């Protein structure tokens, strides 16, 4: 019909699949389908998920999984520079784009800085809430990226199969004064989100300066 051989067509489809443009499935209901474009998530400017989706002209949503005051786990305590077991607010949410789950967020906030955080509306931008109500605006963050495998509960929340690949972003957010205000472990679906980062000598020096300030 289109004047090319079957082999040429298969090669073209394989190329499109490798680029993530199409998805091919097998079975009676299988076929080749146009893939949903991945959301561009730029970590450079510390824009929250809501802002990232606004820039992409997509509607962001949040579904609460849990929100409670708990004893700080070891990693959260270290990141927030508080004693292990000190009270922190743990907020777990599934973030959605166009009502489809794309990120599982697990954030910890010091109770001393945000005493009534759990009484607030937590389905919008948390960074906006920290800035408006508590005058604690996130200014920069240190972030670590690591590929991981979805466990059973995580897979169910994100609507994927157990064992599917995920991108873990471990983040500590600071104010301009160097106060740690959030420790988070976010799990991104790499089939729906592409993470990018711009680097420079100035950014690295700023991170180093904050580390020195916290240790003095």
Structure description:
The protein contains six helices and ten strands, in the order αβββαβαββαβαβββα. The chain has 216 residues and is an alpha+beta fold. It folds into two domains: 1-35, no CATH class; 37-215, Chorismate lyase (3-Layer(aba) Sandwich). The longest helix has 15 residues, at 201-215. The radius of gyration is 20 Å and the shape is elongated.
Give structural attributes.
single chain, 216 residues, alpha+beta, six-stranded antiparallel sheet, 10 strands, elongated
Separation, N- and C-terminal Cα atoms = 73 Å
Label the overall shape.
elongated
Give, in spatial order, the strands making up the sheet with the most strands.
4-5-6-9-8-7
Overall mean pLDDT: 84
Largest sheet: 6 strands, antiparallel
In a nutshell, what does this entry contain?
The protein is of the alpha+beta class and 216 residues long. It has helices at 6-18, 49-55, 74-80, 126-134, 152-158, 201-215; strands at residues 22-25, 31-34, 39-42, 60-71, 87-97, 100-110, 140-149, 165-174, 180-188, 193-196.
């Amino acid at each position: 019909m289109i004047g090319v051989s079957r082999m040429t067509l298969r090669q073209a489809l394989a190329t499109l699949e490798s680029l993530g443009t199409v998805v091919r499935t097998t079975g009676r209901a299988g076929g080749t389908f146009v893939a949903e474009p991945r959301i561009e998530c730029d970590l450079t400017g510390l824009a929250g998920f809501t802002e990232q989706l606004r820039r992409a002209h997509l509607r962001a949503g949040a579904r609460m999984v849990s929100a409670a005051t708990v004893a700080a786990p070891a990693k959260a305590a270290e990141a927030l520079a508080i004693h292990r077991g000190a009270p922190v607010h743990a907020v777990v949410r599934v973030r959605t784009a166009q009502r489809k789950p794309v990120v599982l967020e697990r954030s910890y906030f010091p109770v001393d800085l945000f005493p009534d955080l759990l009484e607030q509306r937590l389905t919008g931008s948390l960074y906006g809430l920290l800035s408006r109500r508590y005058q604690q605006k996130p200014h920069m963050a240190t972030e670590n990226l690591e590929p991981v495998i979805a466990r059973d509960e995580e897979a169910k929340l994100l609507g994927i199969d157990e064992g599917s690949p995920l991108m873990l972003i471990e983040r500590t957010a600071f104010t301009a004064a160097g106060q740690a205000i959030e420790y988070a472990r976010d799990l991104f679906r790499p089939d729906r989100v592409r993470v990018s980062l711009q680097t420079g000598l100035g950014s690295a020096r700023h991170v180093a300066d904050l580390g020195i300030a916290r240790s003095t």
